[in-house]
Amino acid sequence: MKLLLEISYLGTGYHGYQVQKNAVTVEGRLQSALEKFYKCPLMLVGCSRTDAGVHAESFFLTVEGDLYENMSPKKLPFAITQFLPEDISVNRAWRVEDGFHARYDVMYKEYKYLIWNEPIMSPFFCKRAWHCPLRLDIELMNECAASFVGAHDFSAFMAQGGSAKNTVRDIKYLEVEREGSLVTIKVASNGFLYNMVRIIAGTLVDVGMKRIPLGDIENIIASRDRKRAGPTLPPDGLYLSRVVYKNDKFFKN
Amino acid sequence: MKLLLEISYLGTGYHGYQVQKNAVTVEGRLQSALEKFYKCPLMLVGCSRTDAGVHAESFFLTVEGDLYENMSPKKLPFAITQFLPEDISVNRAWRVEDGFHARYDVMYKEYKYLIWNEPIMSPFFCKRAWHCPLRLDIELMNECAASFVGAHDFSAFMAQGGSAKNTVRDIKYLEVEREGSLVTIKVASNGFLYNMVRIIAGTLVDVGMKRIPLGDIENIIASRDRKRAGPTLPPDGLYLSRVVYKNDKFFKN
Question: pLDDT tens digits for B44-86?
């Protein structure tokens, strides 16, 4: 049997999602909680790999193994809570077809990047947003964002260490919003290159502070040159916020 | 010279605001940061004492001592940041008259109590809101809240250990709001008895879960009997959110 789980986590205490030797990871914690509950070895497949310090409002993974066939998946979130630390939650669970793949069947994912845009940093957003003390020009950032939408070769927005051969990605939307002191960059795409969201966020911020002229953006994208784009912003402000699958038929309940 | 400071803090790591022996407190941290900066002993007076684990969006205190006369108070928040931990911020500073008292000159204070009202707790609100898995009836809670407004003897809402002789307080407003998964109780008063906000919140929650009938509230207040009111909710959900002073003339800039 295969279950699909939606989880949330605060990434601050973890070396990313994926299991690593000698490091505390979200997947590691989740696997040990699930194996304590099901009392058998399990196979987990996540929708993505988030880096150390990155958070997830909505992350999906499948669990396979000798699961309790006659327990309703609706009960799992409540049953598993006691085995999990407070910074990870299982929100929902569904049975899925054996053919379902948590990563390959993703249609698009949405990330948010949060910026505390005040001269003094808020203690409530420490490790949960990046601090930008200079006032950002949101209109300018949104004009810039429009150039990213659609299918482009995003090599200029990929960190060294990225292994992608095909560097074309199709950005569905990229929007910047201010709500009080908080600026949120929201981006959805069929896939992301290594550190792509954090470099796009850094480039938008450079435009919003008038360090990069708006007119340069299309050339920067076309250049495929990482050095011409803005800085990679820290992981603290990044949240995986939404995952949309190709086909709802996979969801059995 | 006397300065008035507005600060924010995440209370999770502190044994409350006020200095105590052998315990880490917000005041202790602040005093050592300010004394490092001003290089002299200083006298701090806070607007309130918050308990262990309680947060403050807006807390005021005065600082007296051999302060740099010719430094604009506007620069202090930036200058002091490097001496403070990330969970405390100095937001603003003003010169005030020597006669100003951070506690006695308060006209009223506002507290918020945050409740995560979903079956499963959010990792993002852990230690920052109380978790109530049962759906609360906000309309019922607001009807109940109306009975608290005005001057009443709030003995039924004072924890043991409270030292107040006069137990009459004048509640200016008490309101309950739902925004998505979060329920916020907001209360302003000229003063609060020991644990008063947390007991009022616990009583409103009992009404919202239909454990206490709405019709009983006026009798519970009139009874002056702590046993008849609801439970004291945990400190994690409590925020000092606003302090209004009697007279703006104290503020010199």
Answer: 999 999 999 999 999 999 999 988 888 899 999 999 999 999 9
Chain A neighbours among B 61-90 (CB < 8 Å)? 77-78, 81, 86-90
Nearest-CA distance from A145 to chain B in Å? 28
- Domains of chain B plus CATH, in order, are 2-104 (3.30.70.580), 108-241 (3.30.70.660)
- DSSP H or E run through A104: none
CB-based contact (8 Å) between B55 and chain A?
yes
Count Cα atoms within 13 angstroms, Cβ side, for B125. Answer: 19
**B46: which 2 tokens?**
């806070």
Q: Name A8's bridge partners.
A: A89
pLDDT tens per residue, range B180-210: 999 999 999 999 999 999 999 999 999 999 9
Nearest to B193 by CA among B171, B163, B217, B221: B163
Does A66 have pLDDT greater than 90?
no
